[in-house]
Amino acid sequence: KERTFIMVKPDGVQRGLVGEIMKRFENRGYKLVACKMCTPTKAHLEEHYRDLKSKGFFAGLIEYMSSGPVVAMVWEGKEAVKMGRMMLGATNPLQSNPGTIRGDFCIDVGRNICHGSDSVESGKRESEHWFKDGEIQEWSPAQSKWVYE
Ligand code: GTP
Ligand code: MG
């Protein structure tokens, strides 16, 4: 039961795309196990994006990501990390295929509306960074046996 951390960024929230993004994961058959809206602090985001600290866009990224509410989620299911990245599309929306979330809804890399974990390990690290124990639910969707062989 692989988990990925998916977040609708402040621009995605402002543009009313929360439902659209969640719908795609639900429709695909992934299971929502955690969800909340919050305005992240800079310190929280600096830890989340710690691998990008040396990048020139880091300060702008933290400014943008802390500018308003985000919707943080954990989705669970077979190959959730790899499929989540595929559903989001390339980091730079100008390179995201149509049919992906970024490829359908945005243009600029600095306003790419959503985040998805890039490895199983970061899926676990990010889920634990954004959610406490007990905020992640264990449940069995009735449709599971129709989604998985
Ligand atoms: P996330 O799912 O958001 O982590 O994106 P990613 O894994 O596809 O890309 P990465 O982790 O390398 O970068 C994190 C975020 O930083 C991106 O989603 C962008 O919002 C932003 N970013 C990455 N590269 C650039 C850049 O060259 N310029 C600007 N302005 N922002 C960038
Ligand atoms: Mg990333």
Automatic annotation (TrEMBL):
Cofactor(s) essential for the protein: Mg(2+)
Lineage of the organism: Eukaryota, Metazoa, Spiralia, Lophotrochozoa, Mollusca
Residue ranges of every copy of the Nucleoside diphosphate kinase-like domain listed in the record: 1-138
Catalytic activity: a 2'-deoxyribonucleoside 5'-diphosphate + ATP = a 2'-deoxyribonucleoside 5'-triphosphate + ADP
Keyword ATP-binding in record: yes
Primary enzyme class: transferase
Organism expressing this protein natively: Mya arenaria
Chain positions recorded as ATP binding sites: 9, 57, 85, 91, 102, 112
EC number in record: 2.7.4.6
Name assigned to this protein: Nucleoside diphosphate kinase
Catalytic residues, chain numbering: 115 (pros-phosphohistidine intermediate)
Family of the protein in this entry: Belongs to the NDK family.
